Each structure stands twice: as structure tokens, then as C-alpha cells.
Amino acid sequence: MITELYAYLTNLPRWHIFAIFLIGYLIYYLIEVVKRPILAVSNGPFKKYLRKNIPILEMKFWPTFWCFESRAQTVFASIIRSNMMPNIDYRREVLTLKDGGEVALDWLETDCDSESPLIIILPGLTGESQAEYIKCLVMAANRTGIRTVVFNNRGLGGIELKTPRLYCASNSEDLSEVISHVKKLNPHVRIGATGISMGGLILGNYLANYSDEAKAILTAAKIISVPWDVNKGSDSIEQPYLNSMLGRHLAGSLCRTVRKYDILRNEEFDWDMDVVLQSKTIKEFDSHFTSKHFGYKDVHSYYAQATLHNKLHKIKVPLLCLSAADDPFQPLDAIPIKAAEKSSHVAILITARGGHIGFLEGWWPANKDQYMGRLFSQFFSAALFDSNNEFYRTSQLMMELNLQTSTSVPTTPISRSSSPIRKKSIPF
């Protein structure tokens, strides 16, 4: 019998081999890849509202069958969206900040009512308003009748750098000015905010550090693929070989950004621009430039200030977060699941797959109705239109719960929120 089996295997027709491989691949996909996302949030009014009003939360996430590996999702999402989504004809506003610096605000209001809700969108590390993932969200909002304005950081989006200052993950001063400006222009409109990747860090730090101001202006917020623990995220993106290739690409983008501006070359600065431009990783760039640029002792001090996983208890605006368990920029054990389960205002939706700003689904991912965009539009449509004031009443209950539990929040929550989470405890 063994001889016959050996003879069969050695003479196996090619279509048999293909069929066996395809069946095995399909079984693996259905068992290990297709999962219902986890919603980490306290058992309170926010969780009840989300379960009732956001249908996508109850559905399994079906990653693209031929492209579910984390790095593949990350890379192909960018390639596919770039080729399928045309540039958007924004209305540009150049805003002069208090220190004389300028930023570009790109508005899309086409086919929207002048008093319709508005979402402020913050791109990632070197992203701007024509980045493919930004256009995905902008168009998703536009289809639901919500206006958007993309906040391009200093030096990005085609705006010259007027002062010797760029931007960083820990500093939300520019965002505070932008949000206040947008509110002045739209005093009677519900406003939301979204940050992607590093934009999520800037927004998250704004929500935590300007909590009362944020609560007074913003109705709801959302962050996508945020590197919750910047130190762990930096270590993860430097892992060989595929992760480090992504990291090198982003480091190169940062170097190209600073290379354009002679205003950043001066003997009085603490950094050596020639050394900065030789940076091969994001951490090297932040060590040679960003940390010095913003007055930190070293890169570790900068990352400690930028990190978000230990600040959830400070946030007072209803915040929905989307993270993938396989994000190469952020390991699973750094996602603050336990902290979210104790938070009145923060909910984290964790998919088993999705990579970094990927979340591709379907046999051929289209530029419409992608998972990331559907979650985005469902959440903000419910929160910002809020025709029966259900979200408003939920927000009031959330604040009451926050006030009731605030005295029991530990003064040093870092050890609790950042405790390692064993992967086997997550059903992925």
C-alpha cells in the first residue's frame, strides 16, 4: 500500500496538485483568516450604541482572498487605490498659524448641504490630501452627504515652509488651531475628526491633552491604524526583512520632505542635516531630527510623549478606533485592549487581518465600499446626523459614567493598560 501511495504521489497529475493546494488554501482562509472583529470597550452606553447603530460591527471581515498577509495588504492597498481613485478637486484654504507658519486645508463640499456635518481628516506620516487612503475616506463621507476638510501638516500638500518648524506625533498645537478655526467657520455644525496612522497619534494626543476643548467642539472622533505604543511600533517596523523594507521606504519619504527646505539648514540648529538625510529607519530620523527639532532629550523621550496607549482615560470625546492584529507597524500586544475595556469613551475594533491602513476585502477591492470606508461612514453618519438625538443622549450618559468612575482611575495607568496581552487570549 505504501508503495502504491508513493507511486501515486510521484505521478500526481498537475491539476490534482493544484486542486489540493487550492482546497488547503481555502480551508486555511475560512478557518484562520475570516474572523469577526473584536470590539474592546466598557459595558456601557457607548458599546450599546455602537452595537445598535453600526451594522458592520456584527459582520465578519473577509480580507481579499489572494491578499490577506499583513505586508501584502499594506502595499497592495496603496497600489490599488492609487490606480483606481482619481485626484479630488478640493477647495484649498491656506491658514496662517499664530507663529507665522502656514498649513493647507483642503475642503470637499460637492453635493453637500452648506450646513451638513463636517469631518476634519489628518493624514499619516508624510501623507496629504491626495493620498489614496485619504481619498477613500473623503469619498465615503461625500457619498453620505458629509463635508470633509483635510489638514495637511506644515511643509506638505504643496505648501512652502514659512518657519523653521515641521510637525511631530506628540505636538497638537497646530491641530488645536485648525479645529478652532474650522469651528469658527461652522459654529452651528456638528464636527468630527479622523486621524490615520501618525495622524491618529496627533489627534489622540489632542483628545487627551486638550480634552475639555475637544469635548466642546467635536461630536465624535475616529482613528485608524494608530501606532498605540510608539516604542513597540518602531521596533516592529525594523524587524527583518519585509517590515524593515516598509520602514526604509517611510524613512526615505521623511528625508525627501526635509531635503526640500533650506530653512531647516542653519548652524544654530541642533541637528546636522547631512546626518539626518542619511537616516535609514524612522527611529534614526526621529533621533537625528524630530526629537531635537521639538526639544526632547532623546528619541526615547519623544516616543514616550507621543505614545497613546496610556492616555485613554483622559479622552472625553466618543472615539472609535480601527486596528488590525497583524499591523506591521504595531504588534498586537501593544493595543490597549484592557484599557479600552475600562474606558467610557474609547472603543477599539480589532480585525484579525488588515495590515497597516489596508483592510482590503472582496475578490478585487474596489474604490467604493471598502471596509475602512464603510466603518468610517457608518459611524460618522450615525453620530453626526443624529436625527433623533440618540448619539447626543448616549454622549451625556458616557460623560456621567466618566465622572462616576474618574476617582477610581489609577494615577499611573501605564502598567495596567500596557500589560502584555497573550495572543492566545485573542480569538484570532
Shape: globular
DSSP, total strands: 9
Stated plainly, the CATH topology of the largest domain is called: Rossmann fold
How many domain modules? Answer: 2
- Whole-Å distance between the termini? 39 Å
Looking at CATH, the homologous superfamily of the largest domain is: Alpha/Beta hydrolase fold, catalytic domain
Portion of residues within helices: 40-55%
**Can you tell me the CATH architecture of the largest domain?**
3-Layer(aba) Sandwich
Q: How many helix segments?
A: 17
Task: Give the averaged pLDDT, no decimals.
Answer: 92
- Main sheet attributes: strand count, strand direction, barrel closure: 9 strands, mixed
Q: Which stretches are poorly predicted, pLDDT < 50 over at least 5 residues? A: 409-425
Task: Provide the gyration radius in Å.
Answer: 23 Å
Describe the strand arrangement of the main beta sheet, using strand numbers: 1-9-8-7-6-4-5-3-2
CATH class category of the largest domain = Alpha Beta
Please report which band the strand proportion falls in: under 5%, 5-15%, 15-25%, 25-35%, 35-45% or over 45%.
5-15%
SSE topology string: HHEHHEEEHEHEHHEHHHHHEHEHHH
Q: Structural class, from secondary structure content? A: alpha/beta
What does this protein structure show overall?
With 428 residues, the protein is of the alpha/beta class. The protein folds into two domains: 28-228 and 309-402, Rossmann fold (3-Layer(aba) Sandwich), CATH 3.40.50.1820; 230-306, no CATH class. Helices cover 44% and strands 12% of the residues. Helix 10 runs parallel beside helix 12 (282-293). The model is unreliable at 409-425 (pLDDT under 50).
